[in-house]
Fold:
Amino acid sequence: MRLLDVLATLNTHSRYPGRRRDAAYTRSYRIIRLVVGGLGIVLPLIFIIGEAAFLRGGVHVRGSLSAYYHSPMQDIFVGGLCVIGFLLATYMAGEFKTVDFWASLIAGIAVLGVVFFPTTRSGLPLNAPLCGSIPEPAGCSAIEQTLGEHQTAVIHGICAIVFILFLAVMSFLFATSELLPEEDRLPVQGRRKPGQFRKARLFWIHLACTLVILAAGAWAFWGAGIGQLTRLYIGEVASIWAFGLSWIVAGLNVTAPARHPPRIRAPAGRPSQPSSPRIAGPEAEV
Structure:
């Protein structure tokens, strides 16, 4: 039994009491946002710099981010997007009845679809055999060889569109988290009109990121290339960077709807009252 006593003293449990424990878990939750946002920012740069290092050539970009699957950066492409996908899919698992959870889950599944159903190989010579042919062409994944290169690319494109759309949805949900519910809109000092935001600047940052993601997604289809940058590459990178910025801002700040205390069910004919005063401060925000 002494061994069990020794094991019980190990630092495997939270040592924070009460609200400090909630704050510690809140920080862990926000670090996930920082990791997801940071990966979104740096991955396009890593692809360019890494390929230049591997190929020992000049710095250049490919026709799309997805094209890096069929490049020396394949492992980093797959690994980086898988990390983002699994984090997004499990991000709000503790609150599965919220819109935030389902938006994040769908985005996570979609980006995993982008990884495991790759786009077509670029730079193929005219009349080159496609994946699914016998004998198997070089550079084909098992899924491409099974489903065919074109069919796999169609699934890839659908997943990419869904991913970008739900990146915008999540940034929009971050923005709405900065809106105060009607009962909490108290008059701001020196103004007659009550304040509507928890932090107005965060609302506008997240909303701007939402609009940039949507505009970048549209640019990928109907925009124009700039120099060696294709419209698809510009749209993908702009949307990923806007998404990354939104998540980094949400990670640096407590961006979540305020937590309301439970209400006690009152006897018939009498209004219900909160069980306790509303908790103020960052510990109450997640």
In short: The chain has a mean pLDDT of 82. The first strand starts at residue 263 and ends at 264.
